[in-house]
């Protein structure tokens, strides 16, 4: 005969082996395995972007009394980029000044390491420059740029609400037509160019003269601004195969000859800041 006795988490089974008698009344222990609990999925924690607007970060646009347009990016790693245009022609770049800064109590000061990638002043293609500014958080920036040749540009700029939003991977997708500049200590090499960027931020630049570039743009954690990496093409490109990093930003308010305003600004430089790449273009 056979009987089963359930006890707690295991069962006792009485097994009778008819005929032999050797194991008559023997007990077989059958253990029931413990119930398994599914492991909770691990969700990565992405820290929020720091609230640095109080320290002057932002996207700012404005015009000097000489009618030179400025697009200034004050970013949260204490780095700034000041794109400036030719007087009266807001979509034609004159250069970019970039460097590090510190800020607080409405004042922004640089560490005297500003670098001017200049396209218009003879003999000043890549020289020292300095930016100082006062700011009202989330509203305005009053900046002064001091160039090595003694020129001073003062500009009152307005904070752009684009810095209140986060860029998306496909935010720059499209085709842009404009101009490229590769700038170094000996001068700069201009050329008309077409930039194509896909929904993942991968882009190519066709200079139209046998020189092409490739790179990628990834959203930053604050503002509609992108981190950029780019590799210059091989010969006949100026500074062939140079790897650079920088930023990209689309300004919907830059005016030009086309009916709809808007312009892409992309700047990158070599790690030693001795070579820079600038692209400005429109859809």
Question: Could you characterize what this model shows?
Answer:
The protein is an all-beta fold. A hairpin with a 2-residue loop joins β1 (2-7) and β2 (10-15). The chain is globular and about 50 Å long. Mean pLDDT is 84; it is low at 1-21 and 43-48. The protein is 0% helix and 56% strand. Strands 4, 5, 6, 7, 8, 9, 10, 11 and 12 form a nine-stranded antiparallel beta sheet that branches. An eight-stranded antiparallel β-barrel has the order 13-14-15-16-17-18-19-20. The protein has a three-stranded antiparallel beta sheet with strand order 1-2-3, with no helix packed on it. It folds into three domains: 1-43, no CATH class; 53-163, Lipocalin; 165-282, Lipocalin.
């Amino acid at each position: 005969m056979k009987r089963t006795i359930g006890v707690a988490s295991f069962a006792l089974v009485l097994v009778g082996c008819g005929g032999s008698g050797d194991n008559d009344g023997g007990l077989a222990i059958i253990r029931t395995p413990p119930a398994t609990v599914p492991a909770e999925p691990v969700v990565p924690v992405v820290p929020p972007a720091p609230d640095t607007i109080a320290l002057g970060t932002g996207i700012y646009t404005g015009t000097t009394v000489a009618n030179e347009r400025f697009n200034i990016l004050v970013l949260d790693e204490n780095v700034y980029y000041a794109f400036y245009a030719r007087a009266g022609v807001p979509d034609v770049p004159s250069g970019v000044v970039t460097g590090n800064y510190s800020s607080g109590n409405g004042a922004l000061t640089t560490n005297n390491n500003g670098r001017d990638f200049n396209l218009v002043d003879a003999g000043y293609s890549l020289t020292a420059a300095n930016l100082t500014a006062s700011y009202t958080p989330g509203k305005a920036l009053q900046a002064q740029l001091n160039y090595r040749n003694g020129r001073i540009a003062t500009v009152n700029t307005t904070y752009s609400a684009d810095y209140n939003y986060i860029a998306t991977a496909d935010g720059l997708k499209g085709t842009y037509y404009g101009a490229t500049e590769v700038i170094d200590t000996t001068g700069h090499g201009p050329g008309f160019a077409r930039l194509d960027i896909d929904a993942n931020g991968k882009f190519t630049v066709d200079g139209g003269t046998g020189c092409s570039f490739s790179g990628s743009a990834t959203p930053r954690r604050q503002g509609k601004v992108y981190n950029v990496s780019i590799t210059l093409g091989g010969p006949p490109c100026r500074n062939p195969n140079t790897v650079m990093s920088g930023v990209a930003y689309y300004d919907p308010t830059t005016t030009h000859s086309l009916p709809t305003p808007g312009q892409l600004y992309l700047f990158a430089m070599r790690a030693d800041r001795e070579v820079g790449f600038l692209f400005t273009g429109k859809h």
